[in-house]
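Hi U.,

Before I forget, here's the chain from the pilot set. I'm dumping it here mostly so it's searchable later in email.
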Amino acid sequence: MSRRARDDEPAVGGSGPVPVQGLADADHRPEGLSGLYSSPEYLIRRAHQVATRVRDDEPAVGGSGPVPVQGLADADHRPEGLSGLYSSPEYLIRRAHQVATAAFAEACADLDLTSSQYAALFALRQQAGIGQNALGRLIALDRSTTSLVVRSLKERELVTAWSDPSDRRKTFLELSDKGRLVLAQAEKRNARSSKHLMSVLDPQQAQELLKMLRLLGDSTRPDDDS
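Structure:
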């Protein structure tokens, strides 16, 4: 099996925050992507982007995959002096992002698929024949990360690309038959992973959490960014 890929591949040479104004907002999201946009993994990632305003694909030290959750200080071994950090929304959202990332990576390890790649496949099934930049906006990824995700999917023959005959600078993407098969397998694993991820909450708590994450993820509009 090839190496276990990180949840979100680091953007080579990239720096600074994800340009939130470039992401698809709640008023311009295709209905066919509601399953993706309502998933806890996607909503936690969006909340993490908004809370930190840095790329959500920062690699763990050493770049060897998701931070091992068991290696982090748990509630019973946290110094009292750090209570301010541990209770901050930025820290709590980052921890939720780590947990969700690790859960997806474990569920789809045999497919060697990251959550960003999964989101790209999901979007392309519903929006065939779109460009790379449009894809990135749909799934809330910066351009550099989108480029890496698309390149990986093309190399694995999960996605095909073709150029506009009238303008070779324009490239369009769509799922291959192999990509559809991998996506179908990943959907089943992701559904189980999401259910397990939310199992620590009762149904009402889970509903409220997703509602709050959605509000936070949608809180930034173009006018909010200089």
